[in-house]
């Protein structure tokens, strides 16, 4: 299972897509812009084991802000949304207010439609992400991708009902290992974040996402087998929540 993957951005994406369908039970393909979502929808066929979601990555907010109306329309027809969120790191802070306007509009749209499941970027901006979610009850379910903020904000996210997608690359840092040790084990699912995330110098592939179980077994003081089982059980529960959202939309 892979709950956060930019499959469309791998070199030779069609080949990776075919291999992913062969080897991975479920893949959440997040996109970085509405136009990318539309293009990927035409290039990669739909499949029961792969879900494609519209998004607008905060790193490109200044370049893609004109696509926001298109995104809000796409959200109406998708039970999943992502990648969206905020990035307060030094490189992107200058456009933070614009990011916040876009993210707020997305959350408001999800709220007005009865809720969606979202893959959310929160680097150096978890407080503002959580503020926005808390201000819009009924927005749906947040899956915080590669959460790297403070333990206190992690506890707040847990209290708000957030889930967490964690990949092998995240556990290469001491902070990542410290945070996953404190995450609720029943709300953690695997991700690759490929091709951006690297592990041992190579892009993480969708079928490598469960390698995160190695680090989780240490962080949680359980066997690797138990860690894999926990991730798979959690993944099935999250997929069921996604299907529930889809069912509600079709009524």
Plain-language structure description:
By secondary structure, the protein is of the alpha/beta class. It has one domain (2-250): TIM Barrel (Alpha-Beta Barrel), CATH 3.20.20. The chain has helices spanning 13-23, 34-43, 61-64, 68-76, 96-112, 126-134, 151-159, 174-182, 212-219, 224-250, and strands at 2-5, 27-30, 50-53, 80-85, 116-121, 140-145, 163-166, 188-190, 198-199, 202-203. It has a five-stranded parallel sheet, with helices on both faces. A three-stranded parallel sheet has the order 1-2-3, covered by helices on one side. Strands 9-10 form a two-stranded antiparallel sheet. The radius of gyration is 17 Å and the shape is globular. The mean pLDDT is 95.
Largest sheet: 5 strands, parallel
**Approximately how much helix is present in the residues?**
40-55%
Helix count from the secondary structure assignment: 10
CATH class bucket:
Alpha Beta
Order of helices and strands: EHEHEHHEHEHEHEHEEEHH
Number of domains: 1
CATH architecture: Alpha-Beta Barrel
Secondary structure tally: strands: 10
> What is the approximate shape?
globular
- Would you tell me which CATH topology applies? TIM Barrel
- Give unreliable regions as ranges: none
Rg is 17 Å
Q: State the separation between the terminal residues, measured CA to CA.
A: 28 Å
Sheet/helix structural class: alpha/beta
Tell me the strand order in the biggest sheet.
4-5-6-7-8
Q: In percent, how much strand structure appears in the residues?
A: 15-25%
